Amino acid sequence: MSTMNAIVESTRAAFMSGKTRPIAYRRQQLKNVLRMLEENTDEILVALKKDLNKGRYETLLMEIKMIKNDLVDYIANLESYSKPERPSKAFANWLDSLYILKEPFGVVLVIGAWNYPLQLLLLPVVGAMAAGNCVIMKPSENAVATADFLQKTVPKYLDQECFKVVCGGIPETTKLLAEKFDYIFYTGSGTVGQIVHKAANKYLTPVTLELGGKSPVYIDESADINIAMKRILWGKFVNVGQTCIAPDYIMCTEAVEKKILAAAPGILETFYGKDHKQSADLGRIINERQFKRLAHLVQTSKPVLGGVMDSQELYIAPTILAGVSPNDPVMQEEIFGPLLPIMRVANHQEAINYINSGDKPLAMYLFSSNDAQIWEFLNRTSAGGVSVNDTMLQFTVDGFPFGGVGGSGMGSYHGKYTLDTFTHKKPCLYKSFNKIGEALASSRYPPYSETKRKLLDFLVSKRTGYGFPFLSQLIAFALGLWTAYHYQKGTFSSWFN
Question: Which residues are catalytic?
Fold first, then answer.
């Protein structure tokens, strides 16, 4: 038995024991995660600083707080989220009990990403825990300090039989994916997403793929350019652009482009000072490989602002590229760095056509005061999510599912949507042996007749009660009494035979 197989099978044995099913157990494990975040905040800050030069502000709000919010929600609402649902009944099921039971899938694999190495791993993990699953966590090997923190710290707080951390690179991940899981949740690139999906197909394992893509921005003449650019530049340069929903490129007319280029320098100076490199609020590129990729994109483009790079520090200044065409290298891939290309279009129709010519983006950003034009974008394009006159904040809205569509991913999560992702909804029809119920169902038995068909058609037909649900209930009650009466008199046998 291989090491990975032993890890998965021991975790499966723990799940099959039923240990993770009780609400009290799940709640306690969730409380332990909350305590882990609170008691180790300083260590988390150090780890994120080492990996991405991420400042205190971004780590507290965009890594830790996001996880805490979901934990507080689950701890408070776990009973109501886990209760069986009771669907509406047709007449044929009036005397039956109908349940949609909520059960965990089993052993779940969660593969995290390096750009938000704590949040993008633990957000799905705590949802899977809340649903009653056992979880094997695979942190990104590129965020070394955060992975080390998780491997060292998680076992101190969580049940080691049910929740395990596996570290390593491509070989370890490949071996993990060769094992049989009950659900796989992956966050990362589309290329690796295809590998994960292919591996899951071997066992028909359900997957959620949180990928990315080129999230477009369209700005028209009616937008307040100064406010729009504050929001766009903030969204672009948070985590130095290493965010899956960061604005990837801008489309606008030539006239709007001139206004953008006039506004941007002052806004960036306000954000990061005259020497951006000295700002405590500007991170660094994750590693040398990513730095070289981004440097190539700068060198094959036309920076009109920024473009300063330091390979020793893995630093790339906030950079704006103008005169960009669809064929330029910077438009061929998701940028995932502090480069913001501007591509001129004649009008919003051209922008819509360009968006529709490629993969469906994970996010789309529209800046306009023209409602008709905004709704034309919303109705004629598809994206994982949309924010009008702002960027990134759709990710933080309570009650919104987050996920991609097509090339940007499949499935969604956040809040209760995460718990639902890791929950199988099992329908359960619970019938009794009472004679009234049997009489109601007797028209399904051979020998068949037109009378039986009509009665069964009546029993299973959908009804609205003409807007009054009570009317449906009253009719069903009367039908039950009528059926019981005729059953006792023995008239069914003469009618149906």
Answer: 210, 244
